[in-house]
Amino acid sequence: MSKSPSLFERAKVEIIDLHRCFSNWYNSDDPDPADFSRFEKVLGEGFHIVTPDDGRIIERDSIISHVRANHSCFHGDFIIEIEDIKPGWEAAGIIVVTYIEAQCRAGAWSRRRASALFTENSSMPNGVEWRHLHETWLQAPEAKQANH
Fold first, then answer.
1. What are φ and ψ of residue 116, in 5° steps?
2. Quick check: 44 and 130 in contact, CB under 8 A?
């Protein structure tokens, strides 16, 4: 009898998988509607993100539109690395997970700590859906050097 993955293990895989989708979406020259539909699907109803820039709250539809509009905005020079994934509070079918997201955009690195709230949903690829995300800068994006 095999043991099914814990809620934390499923959320951890979801975090890694979704960020891999972002890298592919932003770096790809060939839009794959299946890739984007996965992103739309895993954001639960009422999802919102608190941004690290100014603490703005962006609702689900706006973040989906933003990501869709930025397809192929990089050309192999966008990287996301996920580190230090840890479980937080957990209750019946709900979990908070923290992680560090390091991004490299055209050679400029940034790092942010994220706290994500997931709920169980067996129809999702990893059995969880994103409900809330709050990001805080650890290292703001590096300023581009002016050419003199």
1. -120, 140
2. yes
* pLDDT above 50 (res 148): no
* Amino acid making up residue 51: T
In this structure, what are the phi and psi dihedrals at residue 57, rounded to the nearest 5 degrees? -100, 120
The number of domains in the chain is 1
Domain span at residue 38 reads 7-139
pTM over 0.70: yes
Poorest-confidence range of 12-21, 68-77, 81-90, 95-104?
68-77
Q: How confident is the model at residue 147 (pLDDT cuts 50, 70, 90)?
A: very low
The two tokens of residue 72 are 């192929």
CATH (domain of 67): 3.10.450.50
Determine whether 53 is exposed, middle or buried from the number of CB atoms within 10 Å of its CB (0-12, 13-18, 19+): exposed
Quote the CA–CA distance of 9 and 87 in Å, as a whole number: 9
Count the neighbouring beta carbons within 10 Å of the beta carbon of residue 64.
Answer: 16
Instruction: Name the one residue in this structure whose structure tokens are 């592919």.
Output: 24
